[in-house]
Design a protein that fits this description.
Length: about 260
């Protein structure tokens, strides 16, 4: 049964984009068609504003984006913050010191900027792939105000070991595997689900009128919140289990199939 959903939340990497970070014509056109039929399209991504904007622009859209896994909800047109969940330098100190001791690459984010104090060839390649232009900071300098996310980047075995170590900590922040090669540390209330719920409430939209599509563990909450939560075929089994439907993979235009099947 097709419903003209009022709000459509779309994850970016592994969902909207192929593994080569390409937006296919079929997916682009289907998203535009859904928007033309009255749905508000909201990108819900672990990316920051500056690396998510090219995707929104490639879709030919503008408006609100949920970035940094829900830590910041942004007005893409005005480059302003609608709402954010901040973290302090003191709260991040243990995670940062752990990474410095272990030689793990990390960055810190405000709503607008991503900052680094060292880089590896692998990290440089990753930033280029995601169209991220990190800003350098002095290691000895205080971290800036307005922090919302701390991200570790590394190999699968490396991140598995980090998760195992951190599982023994009793910290005030949460961490989430936002991709195979990323762990994000954030405010405990910062999730895509929380940000999407808040936005729907502001818009006066019931959850039954929300369609969400995603592919990874950080998408589970928003898939459960939405009236229709759809997981990509390339999702881990836990994500598929949390969804109402499973569509084709991001290599097979799964978003386009979902929108054609359920959004009109």
């Amino acid at each position: 049964m097709s419903i003209n959903y009022d709000l459509i939340a779309l994850d970016v990497d592994g969902t909207l984009l192929t593994e080569n970070h390409t937006l296919t014509t079929a997916v682009r056109d289907s998203v535009r068609e859904a928007a033309s039929r009255g749905a508000e399209i909201v990108l819900c991504t672990g990316r920051g504003l500056n690396s998510a904007l090219p995707v929104l622009e490639a879709l030919g859209l503008s408006g609100t984006m949920i970035t940094h896994n829900g830590a910041a909800t942004m007005d893409a047109d005005r480059r302003t913050v609608f709402h954010q969940y901040g973290v302090s330098e003191n709260e991040l100190s243990g995670f940062r010191e752990y990474c410095l001791r272990g030689g793990h690459h990390f960055d810190v984010s405000t709503a607008f900027d991503l900052l680094i104090e060292s880089i590896t060839p692998e990290a440089e390649e990753m930033y280029n792939r995601f169209e991220i232009k990190p800003l350098w900071r002095e290691r000895e300098a205080p971290l800036p105000e307005g922090l919302i996310k701390f991200t570790v980047f590394g190999s699968l075995p490396e991140l598995d070991r980090i998760e195992e170590d951190w599982s023994l900590w009793e910290e005030g922040l949460q961490y989430v595997r936002s991709g195979e090669y990323f762990i994000d540390v954030q405010h405990r209330e910062a999730t895509k689900a929380a940000a999407l719920t808040r936005l729907a409430q502001v818009r006066g939209i019931d959850s039954s009128r929300v369609l969400a599509i995603g592919n990874y563990f950080n998408d589970i909450g928003m898939l459960s919140f939405a009236g229709l939560g759809v997981a990509m075929a390339n999702s881990p089994e836990a994500v598929k289990s949390a969804a109402d439907q499973v569509t084709l993979s991001n290599e097979e235009d799964g978003v386009a199939l979902t929108l054609r099947s359920f959004a009109w």
